[in-house]
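Quick log. Single chain, no ligands specified.
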Amino acid sequence: MFLSYIRMYDEKIGVSSYKIVDSDFIDEYRSPEDEATAASSAVIKVYEKRNLNVAANLVLLFQYQHNAHGAKISHLIKWNKEHTIAYVKYADEVEKYMVWI
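-> predicted structure:
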């Protein structure tokens, strides 16, 4: 289950990486140089790689971002639909989980 993330930025090469902290593991995702990545891209890649429930963990990410940074979940969903290509695959499933929140 997703718990948190830490964003690191390498100014020398202009690339972000994210350390994803889960209740069962810690993993890292480094964005390609041409990807303007968000934490959601990192969550998608990490949970896809492990064949775990991506949509449920995206919802937990959005809740984390809301609690930690005051971000509106509706804004996060809208932004990801518009800017995160990999998110489109999970958008409908995320919406289903949001009904329960």
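The mean pLDDT is 91.
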